[in-house]
Predict the 3D structure of the following.
Amino acid sequence: MFKPRKFDRDPSLASVKYSNVDLTTDSAQSTSFFNTTAFAGWELTKNDKYCVSRLPALPVLLESTMDADGADEIIFNGYADHATKFALVVGPKAINVWPYRSTDTSPLTFEFPLGDAQSQELTLAILTRPSGPVTMDPGLVIIETIQGRVRFYESVQHAPALGIINSANIETRVDLKNGEYITLAENVEPAGIVVATNFKRVVLVSLRDVQGSPSLSTVELTGPLRALRLFSFFSSKTGSEAGDEIVNIRLGGSNGNEQEIIVQDSKGTYKKFYCNLANGRAFVDHKKTLHYNLTPYLENNIDGIIPGALINTKFVGIWNLNVAGAKNLHTALVSVESFINGTAEIILLLVTLKIDQSGVLLYGSHQLPKTPSLKEDTKPQLFIPSPGATAFVVVGNSVIMTDLNTPFLQQNDLGEPSFTYFKPQWEDVVKLKPTVEIVGLGYENLEGKSTNPSLVLITKNYGVLRVERFPETTQSKLQQVRDPTDPVYLLKSHMQQAVFYRLSEAMDFDVDPIYLLEDVNAGVKSIVDEVMNSLSSSLPPIFSSTRDSLLTRANALRELVVFVQGNFVEFWPLVIPQIVDALEKLDAAQHLWALIDSGSAEAALLKERITTIIQESRYVASSTDIVRSFFTYEVEKIDILTTELLKSLQSSNYSDRTVIKILIGVLYEGVLKNEARYVSDVPEIKPTKHWLYKTDLLDVACTAFQKAYGSSSRAFDTFSSQDRLDLVSLCEALYYTITRAIQAMQDKDDHNLASYVNWYRTNRKVWIAALLKHGLVEEAKAIAEKFQDFFSLAYILETERDSIPNDVVDNQINQYIEVHGYEFASKLFEHYMKADQVQRILLNYKHNKYLDQFLRANSKRHAQVAWIHHLQCKDFENASKVLNSLASRKETDNQENRELCLSLAKLTAIAAKFDQHGTPNAMNLEYSIIETENNLVAVRIQNHLHEILSGFVQNKKELITMEYFQQNFVNPNLGEGATEEVSSFFDRFANQKVLTKEQLIAILTSVKPIGQLKLVFSDALKVSLTIENDLVFQEQATKVWLRLLTTTDDWDKITDTSENTDDVNKAKVRDSIFFHTLSQLEGNSEHFKYLDVLLSNAEKNPGGDAIEKKLHRLVTEKSLKLWVESIKADVIALTR
């Protein structure tokens, strides 16, 4: 019976969505590839090499399985016949036959019911050629695989009527043994059909008699294996050895009435039978049969197998190879399973062989790419449609297409093989999703311009699919890449298909993770460039709507991001930034185009400005509509165009609201949204300087922001909710772009980092102020927190004290501290420091753990607060350390402050020592106290000297000059060198700045020791005693003694005792500066050692300069050494 056709259904109503190749809309699915077939149906994917489409015609069985209610419907098998252009599917209760290339979605379908007995076993069916000119409908052979019954219907159209009549002429039976069943059936007309069984028996079934009328008979080509014949009586389950089966039955060549039939099994046995049809009945001359075992020829010539590995070779298909001038060529599909170290690996080979009476010659082999579908139980199938240029290999749900390398097989005029260099051949894999259930296969030969070499797949749930290979034309060969196996070329093709055919539910566009990062980057860059410039062959050649063009291209890039993320897990974060950059420009362009294409008067003015900019900059060649041309082909320059547009608008006092809309479109809609979606939340994507920084767009944006939202701005008469939203969005976008750039420069130690940070710190104040001005306090806090601008966040919180209670603000601050910890707390304390709110820190946060961390990390910057905090916490040791460091800083270059710091440092160190009495640290504290005391001695002596000199000028510091000092206080007995030394730092002394101890000693020993200054030398000796370096101490002490002995007292008078009484002589000694100096020193002072050394050296060495020579004279002529010892004894006696 047959099923009547229905009215055509709209393809959009089908249960699976596909793109129609005949559509001429602006959709991305309508591509610029030339469609060369007449029955393409709906494209599922396409590139310059092949196309996968779904054919519209569906029989009843397939139609029911594609509906949700029929998803569990069983279909046993099916196939498509290239000669008749009909296909069939076998279900449990019926067989459907239909013209699968029909454009009718419900084609004329012939249905053949199966009886109850047949429904319990697997039924095979084969289409046969039309019987003659009377009908063009194919015939049908139905084979019951277990019973062996074969029924032949000469015409599917007239079969229902013939099926009522039980005629012996249209029926026969293949005599099957116990446990034997039919596994394979092939059409080898005109000889008939050939069936193979699990016992490896092959039987030819003739269909017609000598007159061409239906008449069935059988001829056994090969009998069952001997072992199987012997044991078939004992078990119904006995079959051939696992994996040993007939895999291919093919029609060979023909010569008049003689026809060749090729039979190939999985073990490598090749047989070619010669069938004579002269008498209308098939006669097989077994004497002429060719019989070879191909496996030995193959296993000795397999490349890529590790030596020593165990291999298991299986033939899974063989095909006649038609090459001009060559005969008896075959291409075999071979599965090679190798075992090494217990690991199994399966590869597929295409093997080229020549098989004739002279033997077997192996020309070469080619390893096919691996597919996830290739497993041990997978049965690949080989198809090589005419003209034999491309092999189709079906492996599970994958279709491998590989161009065959045949030029070397062609013969020259002398009949000898020609010599050619090997050229890499194109090869690719088409994958269907795992949910696609293939129930039948077929192929189509090249037939002029109507049909390309194709593979036809009958699926249970996606209808009939066709994979067609486009023929190579002269033009395509010229445009072909140098190496068609280039991984970048192949990867780019798959990515384009995944992007532009993303709605094809049957296709699996994912690729294996075998590509290198550089190849992926190259492929992605090529696609991005083509999409940006509208040059992609997968895009329509022209769009009537620029808006649709921009949207389509942006969506394509979004799909490209998804593809890269899903297929390159290891390094996708390194790839997608370039896609996102392009996507941002397209989205920015979309929003700018929407402004100029709105049809308003303002839009017209904007378009006029843009037109002028494009013309002046020559971004686009001459065109009738240069603005559309720019947005179609030059959108890569959208940043330059936007910058120039904004400058032009600002110079003409254009509407600020319009300028803000432009900035929102570029910075927020274009940049920030895409960055947030694809980039900013991915830690593996390192920050980079954004494409916005290639121009001064951000500077122009900030100028526009200041003009629109600044404190004195009156740009907005009313501030609507949209204006509020725009302000928040723009602030967020500006924050993101600059903070991202700063992070990138920090990672690379960029020399421009400081200028960017300053720019950021300056402008963020403007952004926050604008938000606060318009009452967007919560939004300001949210933005500051999001971008971790905690300094601004602290500022915002403190400004709230004017409007809400302090305890509420304090609670908010504590919450932020709890969430963000030290990062926020440190900026809060920094804000208080700059705002001179030190008291708030010391009172509100004295017990906060982060304050201690902050002050320790910034002990130099905030030492004046740190020591107070340490005292609050009774941390006397750290308080002393901070005070000592504060005393030595340039910022504390004031003697009064320094004396105060050192005094407090000493006291805190004593307190710390008291608390830590008996601990190992007590000794360190003792050293600290001594060091502080020594520094304090020097400070106090310098302050005392300055106080005396100030007293002479009524504390008018400006009168204390070097000239005044030299005229009134310098010891005249010193040479000019000493005066020059003091003049170099006297201004620091006059201004009460800190002097080094060496400088202080120099100025003390240059003073004339009279009156209040009589003790300057004892002070100098005390200062020298505070010097830690022994060599420096020795040098300075010796210097003091030398000047004291040679420039102060008149030793000639003191030592002249001849005319004086003892009282007079004693009085002269005790009035001497030397005596007064010694009287201020302790009797066991370390200074006396260097005094003795000085005198001893002077006695031996006359010295170099004047005062050294004078000392030598006093020692040798006046017995100064004895006088010094006498005075020392006198001083010691008086001090007891």
